[in-house]
Amino acid sequence: MECVNETVVQEFIFLGFSSLAELQLLLFVVFLLLYLFTLSTNAVIVSTIVLDRALHTPMYFFLSVLSCSETCYTFVIVPKMLVDLLSRKKSISFLGCAVQMFTFLFLGCSHSFLLAAMGYDRYVAICHPLRYTVIMGHRVCVGLVAAACVCGFTVAQTITSLVFRLPFHSANQLHHFFCDISPVLKLASHRSHFSQIVIFLLCALVLVVPLLLILVSYIHIISAILQFPSTLSKYKAFSTCASHLIVVIVHYGCASFIYLRPKSGYSSSQDALISVSYTILTPLFNPVIYSLRNKDFKAALHRVRGRAVTLRQR
User: 149-206: per-residue pLDDT in tens?
Assistant: First the structure.
């Protein structure tokens, strides 16, 4: 019996921005500024919600969790990407790649279920306003966030285990800027058909189930809003849901395109471009959309600033 001497992959090389070698310094500056702006915006949102008692409601509790999630989400990918933009060798160890994929999937999957929880919160607020504080108590809100994290952890652990159990020999060049599922799977020496089906079904589960729950919530929300007597009350109800709907469309639109389209439609350059949007731009826009469109939050921000100025003057 002949033994085949195959080198086991110890590290992966990122080629996501290899075709833009002349622009890498410019990309570094742009992405760094966006990243710093994302961190500062989320920090302002979380601190404002914590410091202003008027925002101690379920809606803003979920928004603060979303902001923290977005911050962690970008921290998993963007700092490494910024370092790689200034490095000649853009590499990551095999273990580091597995950790990055797990953390990215955990936060991304939890994010999907968190958006469903936020949809439920809007449903209760509009369809059952008199019982809102009873139904959406602190324990329920914490329980929904914990359930989202448990679901995200389970799915991320399963997918990461299935991917990194596969044999990786020789090929180690990832046509991406982080360890996403499809680029890593392409490098596997042997791909199990069963593993690919399970991964696809889990991705579909994470995207389809929360989206269906959100759709059901909004069917009830819209039917309730249409029964409101005044136009002003209808406008206020729709405006409180608009921010959530924008975030839902962007998140599920990008994620569905990346993870649920057929293999024949796979393009590494196209995936890298879409990935930039949901790893850098979406975490920036999501909290900004929620805060800038919300009069209560802007009023709370002014109050917090006023108290800070008063304390300094003393």
Answer: 999 999 999 999 999 998 888 788 888 889 989 889 888 887 778 888 899 899 989 9
pLDDT band of residue 65 (cuts 50, 70, 90) is very high
Using DSSP's 3-state secondary structure scheme, residue 228 falls into coil
Structure tokens at 281: 């731009």
Nearest to 44 by CA among 292, 219, 262, 310: 292
Between the CA of residue 108 and those of 34, 111, 238, 251, 284, what are the distances in Å? 20, 5, 27, 9, 15
Q: Residue 129, exposed/middle/buried by CB under 10 A (0-12, 13-18, 19+)? A: exposed
Continuous segment of H or E residues that includes residue 12: strand 11-14
- One DSSP character per residue, 171-184 reads --EESSSS--HHHH
Per-residue model confidence (pLDDT) at position 2: 44
Tell me if residue 191 falls in helix, strand or coil: coil
CB 275 within 8 A of CB 180: yes
Q: Which amino acid is at 202?
A: L
Task: List C-alpha distances in Å: 33 to 56, 90, 186, 262, 279.
Answer: 31, 21, 32, 35, 14
Burial class of 197 by CB neighbour count within 10 A (0 to 12, 13 to 18, 19+): exposed
The type of residue at 66 is L
Q: How many CB atoms lie within 10 A of CB 135?
A: 15
- This prediction has a pTM of 0.88
Q: Are 162 and 201 in contact (CB under 8 A)?
A: no
